[in-house]
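Researcher: Next entry: ABC-type branched-chain amino acid transport system, periplasmic component (Roseateles depolymerans).
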Amino acid sequence: MGVKVLRLAAIRLWVVVAWICATIVQPAAAAAAAAPNPEPIRLGLIEGLSGPLGNGGEAVLRNLVWASERVNARGGVKLPGGARPLQVLRYDSKGSVEESLSLLRAATDQGVKVVLQGNSSAVASALIVALDRHNERDPAHRALLLNYAAVDPLLTGAQCSFWHFRFDAHTDMRLAALVEVIAQDRQLKKLYLIGQDYSFGQHLRTQARALLAQRRPDLEIVGDELHPLGRVKDFMPYASKIRSSGAQAVLTGNWGNDLTLLIKAARDLGLGTRFYTFYGNALGVPGVLGDAGVDRVLAVAEWHPNAGDSASERFYQAFRQRFPRPEDDYLHARMQLMVEMLVAAMEKAGTDEPRAVALALENLRLDGRPLGVAHQGWMRPTDHQLQQPLYVSIMRRAGEAGVPHDNEGSGYGFRTLRYLDAAQAELPETACRMKRPAR
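Model: Predicted structure:
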């Protein structure tokens, strides 16, 4: 009888424990299982990711993916409701203005609050107009436009917008840096201007003439023409014109395949001209030129792999570890800084709401070196133009003094000729009359 009582008590005790577990443990486990992952902050990249200039778009995508990965690796964007990761969404515009506008509507319809674009000032201009209208018409679904490469000064000048921020040095800033070097080359007497026939190329042509007339009135411009953007397959006729003109140097804002094919044609024709370029240090140009580019191709950029300090070296090595293939060697510090400044602004504002983030971005200064970015900048609040250092560099063989790294496994890299700090590279804001939202 006593044994039965003990067994009955044990059973009752087991039932009580089981009830406690069912009441407390199981709901807790179910709640944990049901807890959603933090909603990502989506960055919508609207860029030409296919077609004749798609290689440039894909290279940009790698930069932005890496920047987002590094933010996420340290916990994401720290907001009051909890940390949230970044997610880059790709929207292939194929380089078309109309397609870009359609994709902007798609992105905002999907709740994207930050749009990224750069490879075409014509596209950037259209996006600014469309986004201004969208944000005014639908303030509950506003978005920001962060621009990493569209360099027409009008975008932060007469067309400046509260919703648009540029993280690249604009045409006039880059041009002024190149002209600093041209002005010092007293052996240069004849110069040829060539560019792409859209807003950026058209502005560069006008501004180059004006600035050269100030700094080098003795310099003869022996050629000046524009060609269709992204449509010329054979640049040999243009190279022949350059040779016939007797030009000693070429100044061009060409980028992507338009630059690569132009310099390849010059090489095939045996031209010994120097090329003062905005984008001659990436996307296949050094490999196409080979020895013909040594001491002839100059480029201007906010940074380059041979900039020289320890922070720069760590930054470059980290990127090469993430993207070890030589053909993926296309790293831009400004794109990394853009993402880091966006994150800093969101954390400062305590939200990803576009107006609050825009206000936090204004006047923001960020030294990216503690975050692994070998670059620093200040977002000028009056026109949303980033102020940053610039380098003018010249193509040399890798392994020579000042050139420890090559470009894209080509065996050729760039060495600094002239460094301008942010104050030296800054040009005054003149035309921006920014309209700010009341709330």
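Model: Note for the record: The domain at 172-301+389-425 is CATH 3.40.50.2300 (Rossmann fold).
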